Amino acid sequence: MPKDHGIGASSKRREDVRFLTGQGRYTDDINLQGQAYVHFLRSDVAHGVLRSVDTSAAAEMPGVVRIFTGTDFEGVGGVPCGWQVTDRHGEPMQEPAHPILAQGKVRYVGDAIAAVVAETKEQARNAAEAIELDIEELPAVVDMKTAVQEGATKVHDDLTSNLCYDWGFVEENKPAVDAAFEAAAHVTTLELVNNRLSPNPMEPRVAVGDYNPGTDDSTLYTTSQNPHVIRLLMGAFVLGIPEHKLRVVAPDVGGGFGSKIFHYVEEAFCTFAAKACRRPVKWTSSRSEAFITDAHGRDHVTKIELALDADNNFTGIRTDTYANMGAYLSTFAPSVPTWLHGTLMAGNYKTPNIYVNVKAVFTNTVPVDAYRGAGRPEATFQLERVIDKAARELGVDPIELRRQNFITEFPYATPVAVEYDTGDYEGTMTKLLEMIDRDGFEGRRAESEKNGKLRGIGVNCYIEACGIAPSALVGQLGARAGLYESATVRVNATGGLVVMTGSHSHGQGHETSFAQVVADMIGIAEDQVEIVHGDTANTPMGMGTYGSRSIAVGGSAMVRATEKIIAKAKKIAAHLMEASEGDIELKDGQFSVAGTDKSVAWGDVTLAAYVPHNYPLEEIEPGLEETAFYDPNNFTYPAGAYACEVEVDPDTGKVEIMSFAAADDFGNVINPMIVEGQVHGGLAQGIGQALLENVSYDENGQLLSASYMDYTMPRAGDMPMFQVDHSSQTPCTHNPLGVKGCGEAGAIGSPPSVVNAVVDALQRAGHTNVTHIDMPLTPARVWAAMQG
Amino acid sequence: MYNFEFSKPSTIADAVAALSSDEAQALGGGQTLLPTMKQRLAQTDMLVSLTGIGEMQGICVGDDGELCIGGATTHAAVAADGNYPGLASLAGRIGDPAVRNRGTIGGSLANNDPSACYPAAALASGATIKTNARDIAADDYFQGMFDTALEDGEIITEVRFPIPEVSNYQKFVQPASRFALVGVFVAKFADGVRVAVTGASSDGVFRWAEAEAALAADFSKAAVDALAVPSGDMISDLHGTADYRAHLAKVMTGRAVAAAS
User: Fold this and answer.
1) Do A779 and B241 touch (CB under 8 A)?
2) Amino acid B22: pLDDT
3) Which residues of A772-784 are buried (b: 16+ CB within 10 A; e: fewer)?
4) Mutating which of B36, B239, B241, B245 best tests the A interface, going by the most A Cβ atoms within 10 A?
5) Cβ contacts (< 8 Å) between B239 and chain A: which residues?
6) What DSSP element (H or E) covers A169?
7) What is the ipTM of this complex?
8) Does domain B1-48 have CATH number 3.30.43.10?
9) Bridge partners (DSSP) listed for residue B59
10) By a Cβ cutoff of 8 Å, what residues of chain B touch chain A?
11) Rg of chain B, C-alpha, whole Å
12) Which end of chain A is more exposed for a tag (fewer CB within 10 A), N or C?
C-alpha cells in the first residue's frame, strides 16, 4: 500500500497550484517604483577590436537616462570564475578578465558593448541603435583544434594562447595506462563529438537592480539557482558591496538546467546601474538574447580508447578531449570537463587503468558551462558508445560485455579519485531487462521490416556523482567555494513551522518534497510545513541547487536542523510531563513517556516554547528555532541502466523512438511522482541532445541556430511513453536520508542508448561501415551515414 | 517593433487606396510579418490589414468547378473545407493551431517563403492568383525565393484552384521550424499530372517536369523510382545538404503518388 503522506508518498506538488494558474511571482513580475529599463547593445561580430563607441547621438534620444560603456567599469572587477584547474604540469589555468561591458575587444556575437538605461524598453532599444560603433573585425576562432595550433589568432591577447589548460588525470597513472594498452588483446577506438546545447529554460533571464540611498542597501532580483552564491560573487568580487549591504532575491524561477547557476554580467550591471542612476534598473532577456548570452552546454570533441584482455575484461581507458570554454570563463566552466567528467570515466566498470586528458580551449563563442548533467553526460556518452563498439568488434553481446565488467563490490575506489559508496548495477540491469522484453525484439524488428523500417535496440548504463559536494575535497580540486548546504527550521507557537533553506527550487518541487521529510520526522501534516527559499535576507547562507544536490545535501541539512528541534522539544515535553528526557518518544506528533499513558501534543510543546510560563528556563532558552549546515563526506552515486528501441526510415533517415525504458537506483525516494517527473524531463533533454538539439556556428562565429526556427527544441510528440522504474534502491551510506538525487540522471543516461539503437538498426540492415553517427542524429545525418 | 500607423479597411478598394503610399505594407494573418517586425528586421510606416474585408473571406465552388478561396481566408478554414481533400490536408498541417487560425492563403502566397506549403499546392494545381488588378497563372506567379509577380500594392483577393482527380501533399519537415524541408504536391488531372516541390530549391517552389511526364504515362510510385531530381539548385544548410534535399524530393514525390486520393 503506497503511503499517502510523508517520506515515500506521491504528494501532489503544492507549488503547481500557483504555477499552473498564473499566480507564480517571477522576476519579470517584479516592477519597482520609478523603474528604468536597460537595453544592451551587443556585438554582431564574433571577434574585433573596439575602436570607438560613440554614444553622443544616442544620449540625446528621447527617454535616455544614461548610457554606460566599458569605460564606466574600468575600476570595477570583472565577473569571476569560481573554479581553478591546475594543468598536468602543475600550472594554474589561464584565466582571462571578463569585464561587465566590453573593453578594447569584442569576443563573441552577443558580447555586451554598451548599455542604455531609459524610461521605457523601446526608448532604450531605439537609443542603442543610435550608438555608433567602430569595430575592426578580426578573424574568428571557432574550431577548437584550429584554435590551439601555433600562430592561431588569440581570443585574449594577454594570454599565451587559446589553451585554458591541458589537464591530465591522473597524470601519474599515464605510464601504467599506456602499458595496459601495450598489453591489450583488443583496443577499440572511437572519435566523437558531444554536441553543443542551448539550455532554453522556459523563463528567460531577468535582473532588477534596486538601490536605497537612505540606507546604502542594494538589492538584486534575479533568475538564479543560487542567490547566496550570486551575492558572494557579485558583492565580494565584482562590485565591492559587503554582504550585509546586499540582498539577492531569486523568487519563482522558471527552469534553469544549470544556466542560472552562473553569475552573469547583466546581474552586476543592473545592481551597479541602480546605484549610479539612483533608480531601479530592469533587464528582461529576449529569447533571441538568451541564445547568445545564456551559457551553452557540452561541446566536447573526444577520442576514446578502450583496452580489453583476451577474456574481454576492460583493462584500460584512455581519452583525449577538447572542451570548449567559449570566449570567457563562466562561473564553473573549468570544473565541468575536468572534475565532473574525468572522475566519472570509470563508469559502472572495474577498469584498473584510466587516463583522461582534457584541453580546454577559448573560442569566439558564447561561454560554455554546466548544463543538466554537466560533464557526466559527456563521460557516459563516450564510455557507453565505445563499449558498444567494442562489443560489435568482438562479436559479443553488448549487455553481457557490460555485465562481465560491472563493479560488484562496494565501497569501490575508482582509479579516477572517487569512491563509490554503494550500488547494484546488476540489479538495475536485471530490472531493465524485465521491462523491455528483449527476447521479443526479433519479432518487433521483423514487424518493422514489413513496414519498410529498420529497427534497432540500444542499451547503456550510467553512473553519476551527485550530492555535490564534500567541501574539503572540492577545495583540493580547485573549487573556490564550499559546497555544503544549510537549513533553518523555525517552529511557530502553534506548531506550524517554516524551513528556510539555502537550496533553491526552480521547478523541482522542493516545496512539496522537503515538507514531506520534515512533516514525517515530526509526525505532523505536510501542510503544517512551509518551505522558504530564494532570498538571502531570510535564508541561511547556502550554495543553491544544481548537481542533483538538493535532497542529498540540502535535505540532509534540513534533517539535521529538525533533529535539533526534536531534541529540544523533547526536553520541553519532559518538563511538561515531569519525566526524564531519555524516556520521551515522539510519534505522530505526540510526545509520550515510554511505558506510561502520559502524552503531550506537538502543539502544546511548541506553545510552551514561546509562552514559557511552565518551562525549564534555567536549562534551555525559550523559542524553537534551529539551524544546521551539512557538508557531505562523499558524493552520491546514482546509477542505472537504460534501453531504447528505434525505427529508422531508410528512405529519409528519420529516427522514431518506439520505446524507452529507464531503470534507476536513486537510493531512497522521498516522492516517487516527483522523481518520475524529474526522470521524464531528463530523458526528454537527453533524447533532445541525441536526436534534435544542436548549437551551430559558422566559420565566422555567427550563430546559425539563433532561434527556434533553427534550434530544434524537443516537443512532446518527439517522445515515446517512458517506462521508468526506481525500485532498485541501494540507499546512500553517508547521508541521513539515504538519498542520492535524481535531477540529472535522465539527461546523463539517455543519449548513448539512442545512438546505440540507431547504429544497431543500421548495422542490422547491412550498413556495417556505420560504427558511429555524431549527435544530433538528424534525418539528414542518418541518411548521409547510410549513403556510404 | 518600430511604431507604425494601422489601418483596417473593409473593402478591396479602400485597401488598394491605403496601400498606394510607398511606405504602406499589407498585413494578412501576420504570421511572418509580425515576428519579423518585432525583431526590427522589417519596418513600415503604415500597416494595412486585409482581414476586415468581407469580399476576401470564404470558400466556394465556382460554376467552372474550381475552388475559390478568398485571399484573407485562414488556413484553418481551408483545412475544414471538404471540396479539395489534398489542399485541405495541406492547410491542416501548416504550422500549429494558432498559425492556422491567423495565417491566410493570400499572405502565404504573397510572401512566397521558399519553405511554405501553399506555393506547392497552387503550382501543382495550376491555380489562378486573382488580384485587385488581374489574374495571374501560378506558372507565371512564382518568380523565386520571396519573389512573385505581384506589383507593389497589389492584393491577392482570391485564389482559384482547379480540383484534380486525385492529389496528395507530402511534407518532410525541417525539424526545428516544422516548415517543409521538402514538400511535394502531386495533382492528377484528366489531361495530365503536375508535381510541385517546395522547401528544396534556392529558386523557391518549382515543377518537376520529368516526374510529371513519367507520371502522366504511368501514375505509380515505380514511375518515379528511376528518376532523379538534379541537386544543382537545391538549398544546402544546417538541416540538410543539396543532395539530401534532391533525394527527399524524389522520395516525397513517390509517397505522394502512392497516397494520392
Assistant:
1) no
2) 83
3) bbebbbbbbbbbb
4) B239
5) 710, 778, 780
6) strand A163-169
7) 0.96
8) yes
9) B69
10) 39-40, 172, 175-177, 179, 237-241, 244, 247-248, 251
11) 18
12) N
> What is the phi-psi region of residue B43: left when phi exceeds 0, alpha when psi lies from -120 to 50, beta otherwise?
beta
Task: Report phi then psi at A784, rounded to 5.
Answer: -60, -40
Indicate if the alpha-carbon torsion angle A703, A709, A714, A720 is positive or negative.
negative
Residue type, B86: G
Chain A residues touching B240 at Cβ < 8 A: 778-780
Count of CB contacts below 8 A, A vs B? 43
Instruction: Encode A88-117 in three state secondary structure.
Output: CCCCECCCCCCCCCCCCEECCCCCEEEEEE
Which stretches within A343-408 are classed as H helix? Answer: 376-394, 398-405
Grid coordinates representing A131 are 550608438
Burial of residue A51 (CB within 10 Å: 0-12, 13-18, 19+) is exposed
CATH fold group of domain B166-259: Enolase-like; domain 1 (3.30.390)
Domain with CATH 3.30.43.10 in chain B: 1-48
Q: Say yes or no for a CB contact (<8 Å) between B176 and A712.
A: yes
Predicted confidence (pLDDT) at residue A111 exceeds the cutoff of 90? yes
B96 contacts on A by Cβ (under 8 Å):
none
Q: Which amino acid, A76? A: V
Q: Answer for the pair A109, A123: CB distance below 8 angstroms, yes or no.
A: no
How many Å apart are CA B241 and CA A99, to the nearest integer?
40
The model's pLDDT over A33-74, given as tens digits with 9 standing for 90+, comes to 999 999 999 999 999 999 999 999 999 999 999 999 999 999
The whole model's pTM is what?
Answer: 0.97
Beta-carbon separation of A784 and B239 below 8 A: no
Are A40 and A114 contacting, i.e. CB atoms less than 8 angstroms apart? yes
List chain A residues with CB under 8 Å of B172. 652, 654, 779
- β A300-308/A281-284 pair status: unpaired
Within chain B, all domains assigned CATH 3.30.390.50 are found at 166-259
| Angle between the N-to-C axes of helices A745-764 and A376-394, in degrees from 0 to 180, rounded to the nearest 10 | 30
Give the chain A residue whose CA is nearest to the CA of B236: A780
Q: Are A421 and A634 in contact (CB under 8 A)?
A: yes
**How do the pLDDT tens digits run along chain B, 261 residues long?**
899 999 999 999 999 999 998 889 999 999 999 999 999 999 999 999 999 999 999 999 999 999 999 999 999 999 999 999 999 999 999 999 999 999 999 999 999 999 999 999 999 999 999 999 999 999 999 999 999 999 999 999 999 999 999 999 999 999 999 999 999 999 999 999 999 999 999 999 999 999 999 999 999 999 999 999 988 999 999 999 999 999 999 999 999 999 999
Which of B179, B239, B251 shows the shortest C-beta gap to A652? B251
Exposed e or buried b for every residue in A93-112, given b needs 16+ CB within 10 A?
A: bbbbebbbbbbebbbbbbbb
Distance from the B158 Cα atom to the nearest Cα atom in chain A, whole angstroms:
29
> Does the beta-carbon distance from B240 to A780 stay under 8 Å?
yes
Quick one: closest CA in A to B249, which residue? A652
Cis link prior to A170 (omega < 30° from 0)? yes
Q: Do B238 and A694 touch (CB under 8 A)?
A: yes
The SS3 assignment for B178 reads coil
Structural domains of chain A sorted by starting position, each given as residue range(s) with its CATH number in brackets: 16-22+484-630 (3.30.365.10), 31-83+97-138+205-284 (3.90.1170.50), 300-469+634-787 (3.30.365.10)
**What is the C-alpha separation between A505 and A255, in angstroms, rounded?**
9
Our CA dihedral for A510, A516, A518, A521, rounded to 10 degrees, sits at -150
Q: Any CB–CB contact under 8 A between A132 and chain B?
A: no
Taking phi first (over 0 means left), then psi (-120 to 50 degrees means alpha), and beta for anything else, what does residue B75 get?
alpha
